[in-house]
């Protein structure tokens, strides 16, 4: 799917936006018949509540959507996007939309139009929207298109999205924007990126490391995304219930690819590098074993205490490679720990950084992009927890606490960069929400896009 707004020159019907505390005044301004219709319909202007307005000959002349209360708007992102499911097909335009909510409303409409239709055709033609006045149309379209890519990749089952297919999607994106690429596999991967090889060698679907470079001038930004296309847990096999969502374990890769698409589509003045270790963590006689000790690209040794803590292994090698070029900002994204979900739930994207200025920029971008994040600490006092004694690092310490923090500290050892930021995302919406149907979802990408000008001085 490709997100789009309706042709501004095409005919469209009005969609009136009415807050709950302004409903009576608005009803009093209407023709008597229309006001009676709405009052008899018990329309209360709750956030996202839609009522159709009848026209001549039984047609739908327009519609009204409730903007709710300030409290409701604070609790629910993209509330106006509920109109997409409630309105008949055809083009619409907002009337009475507050300027401060126009961008969120426009973006929410596009995100609500998303359908994953690879295996089942969409059942309904959805209504279109004319881009509201004052909205940066190019930026909103870029954000929606990047999110569509992320959702498509996460939603695709592992049978159709293994390391080779993720590579194909990665190369296709690079070709579209004229980016240079590099793919490392086979003996070169085994020699130069031994932890990535160790995780992926148990699968018949060969591991590989993907790299993209775009842009010739400006500050440098490197994005690293975890691309575990399916995670059985390896020899520390997950239970059946734990594997149900493991097609989404490449959500970090999908999210950095979505962010990269936004950056390239908007032609931001920076030098971008994207790195994705693409593997499948599977079970065979070749699989890495508990208590194996791996030597990383950085030279650090890692004791494998749980083969199901594989994401930090592949990211460790990828981050070490990224850090060798000393980019101005280094960011990793991964569906890394269940501990992060326990801490903040599925709706927030927890992140780590030691750079207060980067955190400030990200928080502002999150608010502007309706993309909530929450900062967690690189707590130095937990560093000894990831030091097992027999090797430099432990990939799964049996500490029992602070699982997301200790994983982030593990990654920081490999990034070794003062302006490093790590996201421990979920990448999945567990039930339908406004503009976010159940399934794959990007987290943190819009916040980062809007934070980059301050982070990088663009």
Automatic annotation (TrEMBL):
GO terms for biological process: proteolysis. Pfam families: Peptidase_M17, Peptidase_M17_N_1. It comes from the Bacteria. Residues 14-127 form the M17 aminopeptidase N-terminal domain. Residues 149-448 form the Cytosol aminopeptidase domain. Keywords: Aminopeptidase, Hydrolase, Manganese, Protease. One of its GO terms (cellular component) is cytoplasm. Transmembrane segments: none annotated. GO terms for molecular function: manganese ion binding; metalloaminopeptidase activity. InterPro entries: Leucine_aapep/pepB, Macro_dom-like, Peptidase_M17_C, Peptidase_M17_N_1. Belongs to the peptidase M17 family. This is Leucyl aminopeptidase. It comes from Gemmobacter lanyuensis.
């Amino acid at each position: 799917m490709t997100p789009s707004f309706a042709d501004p020159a095409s005919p469209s019907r009005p969609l009136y936006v009415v807050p709950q505390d302004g409903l009576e005044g608005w009803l009093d301004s209407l023709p008597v018949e229309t006001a009676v219709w709405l009052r008899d319909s018990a329309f209360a202007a709750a956030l996202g509540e839609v009522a159709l307005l009848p026209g001549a000959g039984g047609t739908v002349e327009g519609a009204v959507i409730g903007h709710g209360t300030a409290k409701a708007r604070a609790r629910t992102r993209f509330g106006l996007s509920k109109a997409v499911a409630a309105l008949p097909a055809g083009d619409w335009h907002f009337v009475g939309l507050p300027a401060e909510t126009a961008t969120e409303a426009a973006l929410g409409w596009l995100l609500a139009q998303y359908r994953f239709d690879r295996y089942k055709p969409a059942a309904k033609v959805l209504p279109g929207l004319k881009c509201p006045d004052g909205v940066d149309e190019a930026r909103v379209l870029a954000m929606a298109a990047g999110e569509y890519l992320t959702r498509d990749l996460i939603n695709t089952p592992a049978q159709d999205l293994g390391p080779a297919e993720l590579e194909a999607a990665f190369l296709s994106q690079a070709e579209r924007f004229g980016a240079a690429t590099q793919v490392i596999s086979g003996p070169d991967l085994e020699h130069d990126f031994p932890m990535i090889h160790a995780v992926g060698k148990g699968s018949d679907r060969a591991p590989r490391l993907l790299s993209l470079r775009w842009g010739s001038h400006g500050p440098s930004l490197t994005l690293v995304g975890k691309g575990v296309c399916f995670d059985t847990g390896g020899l520390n096999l997950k239970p059946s219930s734990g594997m149900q969502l493991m097609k989404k374990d490449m959500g970090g890769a999908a999210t950095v690819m979505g962010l990269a698409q936004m950056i390239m589509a908007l032609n931001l003045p920076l030098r971008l590098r994207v790195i994705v270790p693409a593997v499948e963590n599977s079970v065979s006689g070749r699989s890495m074993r508990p208590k194996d000790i791996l030597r990383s690209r950085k030279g650090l040794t890692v004791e494998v205490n749980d083969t199901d803590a594989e994401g930090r292994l592949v990211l460790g090698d990828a981050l070490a490679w990224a850090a060798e070029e000393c980019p101005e900002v280094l960011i990793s994204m991964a569906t890394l720990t269940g501990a992060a979900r326990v801490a903040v739930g599925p709706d927030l994207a927890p992140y780590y950084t030691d750079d207060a200025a980067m955190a400030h920029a990200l928080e502002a971008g999150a608010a502007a992009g309706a993309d909530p994040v929450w900062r967690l600490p690189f707590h130095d006092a937990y560093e000894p927890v990831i030091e097992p004694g027999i090797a430099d690092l432990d990939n799964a310490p049996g500490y029992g606490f602070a699982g997301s923090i200790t994983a982030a500290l593990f990654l920081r050892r490999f990034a070794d960069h003062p302006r490093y930021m790590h996201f421990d995302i979920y990448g999945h919406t567990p039930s339908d929400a406004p503009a976010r149907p159940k399934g794959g979802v990007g987290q943190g990408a819009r916040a980062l896009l809007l934070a980059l000008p301050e982070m990088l001085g663009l």
